[in-house]
Specification:
The protein has seven helices and five strands, in the order H-H-H-E-H-E-H-E-H-E-H-E. The protein has a domain at 52-171: Vaccinia Virus protein VP39 (Rossmann fold). A five-stranded parallel sheet has the order 3-2-1-4-5, covered by helices on one side. Helix 2 packs parallel to helix 4 (65-77). The N and C termini lie far apart (42 Å). The protein is of the alpha/beta class.
């Protein structure tokens, strides 16, 4: 399949500064946090019923800020259940930020983190080569489909990895940029 997440250039300070300004001047981040607070508990209400472990796949986990919010809701819904959280993220700096955030966050004792420095298509290729078709209870793809070549194929692949009663969460934010013509 032709899906992939393009990695940010190694010198991506301009991107990060632009993204910081975007977050400061938009409601995107607040909308995601409100969604996680109000809607996510209902979405995850069946993913861990009767399970001793919940398997979560974060596709394009970034720096982990949103992932940790999601994980806190899952922990609250399923206290004491082991959570295996695997992260696909192609950018070294984002993975480092994610690991630093995890190190500073309390109450993550029952969560096992595994990071894969790869794109979604690299993950798919690796799994296909190994003939490993691990099933997941919850897969989330937040703000990452912008970076894939074949969106339907990417969604179809990850949907095929869901367990029964599992959920696939996709969040995309549309940005309206007016173009002024002379």
């Amino acid at each position: 399949m032709a899906s992939s997440m393009r990695s940010l250039p190694s010198d991506h300070s301009r991107y990060l500064e632009s993204f910081r300004l975007f977050l400061e001047n938009s409601t995107e981040h607040q909308c995601m946090l409100e969604f996680i607070e109000k809607k996510l508990p209902g979405i995850i209400s069946s993913i861990g019923n009767g399970k001793s472990a919940i398997n979560i796949l974060s596709v394009g986990g970034g720096s982990g800020e949103i992932d940790l919010q999601i994980l806190s809701k899952i922990q609250a819904k399923y206290p004491g259940v082991t959570i295996n959280n695997e992260v696909i993220e192609p950018n070294d700096e984002q993975i480092l930020s994610y690991k630093e955030r995890v190190a500073k966050t309390p109450n993550l004792e029952n969560i096992k983190f595994t990071w894969h420095k790869e794109t979604s298509s690299e993950y798919e290729s690796r799994m296909n080569e190994k003939k490993e078709f691990k099933k997941w209870d919850f897969i989330h793809m937040i703000q990452m489909l912008y970076y894939v070549k074949d969106i339907p194929a990417t969604i179809q692949y990850f949907h095929s990895l869901l367990e029964a009663k599992a959920k696939l969460l996709i969040i995309l934010v549309s940005v309206f940029l007016p173009v002024l013509a002379p």
